[in-house]
Amino acid sequence: MSTEHTLVLVKPDGVARGLTGQILARIEAKGYELVDLKKFTPGRELLEAHYAEHEGKPFYEPLVAFMMSGDVVAAKVSGHRVIEGFRSLAGTTDPTTAAPGTIRGDLGRDWDLKVQQNLVHGSDSSESAERELALWFG
Ligand code: DAT
Ligand code: MG
């Protein structure tokens, strides 16, 4: 078995709504390991580096502002194929139409025209995971 690592963020909407425990429980119930956890309000510099691929898109500024609006819980999660597996648990980006059974589909919906408040972030590839884990966990 080859173990990989991914970055999961419970975004400010998830923390503010008291869903952190439920979200982390789904990750553990799937059989993944929570290797490291921290809770804090991220600053602009970290978020701009994290979301560099989206710079210039219409939702970029609202996204950074939303992510700075309160505490997030960052998790380093490990397991076989966890990058793909967590993306599948999270569901598609738009929480209004994400499939039932997923975190976004069961617990989320859209509240804002400018940015989708979709409860969680998960790295989308091994390159992203490595880059993002270095940013959030050093
Ligand atoms: P994901 O979080 O599913 O990997 P992404 O990387 O394409 O999605 O976008 C990052 C975040 O930006 C996403 O979680 C919510 C927000 N976002 C993406 N596309 C959007 C859109 N068309 N309108 C509003 N917000 C959007
Ligand atoms: Mg993404």
Automatic annotation (TrEMBL):
<dbReference type="InterPro" id="IPR001564">
    <property type="entry name" value="Nucleoside_diP_kinase"/>
</dbReference>
<feature type="domain" description="Nucleoside diphosphate kinase-like">
    <location>
        <begin position="3"/>
        <end position="138"/>
    </location>
</feature>
<feature type="binding site">
    <location>
        <position position="93"/>
    </location>
    <ligand>
        <name>ATP</name>
    </ligand>
</feature>
<dbReference type="GO" id="GO:0004550">
    <property type="term" value="F:nucleoside diphosphate kinase activity"/>
</dbReference>
<comment type="similarity">
    <text>Belongs to the NDK family.</text>
</comment>
<feature type="binding site">
    <location>
        <position position="118"/>
    </location>
    <ligand>
        <name>ATP</name>
    </ligand>
</feature>
<feature type="binding site">
    <location>
        <position position="59"/>
    </location>
    <ligand>
        <name>ATP</name>
    </ligand>
</feature>
<feature type="active site" description="Pros-phosphohistidine intermediate">
    <location>
        <position position="121"/>
    </location>
</feature>
<feature type="binding site">
    <location>
        <position position="87"/>
    </location>
    <ligand>
        <name>ATP</name>
    </ligand>
</feature>
<dbReference type="InterPro" id="IPR036850">
    <property type="entry name" value="NDK-like_dom_sf"/>
</dbReference>
<keyword id="KW-0546">Nucleotide metabolism</keyword>
<keyword id="KW-0808">Transferase</keyword>
<protein>
    <recommendedName>
        <fullName>nucleoside-diphosphate kinase</fullName>
        <ecNumber>2.7.4.6</ecNumber>
    </recommendedName>
</protein>
<feature type="binding site">
    <location>
        <position position="104"/>
    </location>
    <ligand>
        <name>ATP</name>
    </ligand>
</feature>
<feature type="binding site">
    <location>
        <position position="11"/>
    </location>
    <ligand>
        <name>ATP</name>
    </ligand>
</feature>
<dbReference type="InterPro" id="IPR034907">
    <property type="entry name" value="NDK-like_dom"/>
</dbReference>
<dbReference type="Pfam" id="PF00334">
    <property type="entry name" value="NDK"/>
</dbReference>
<keyword id="KW-0418">Kinase</keyword>
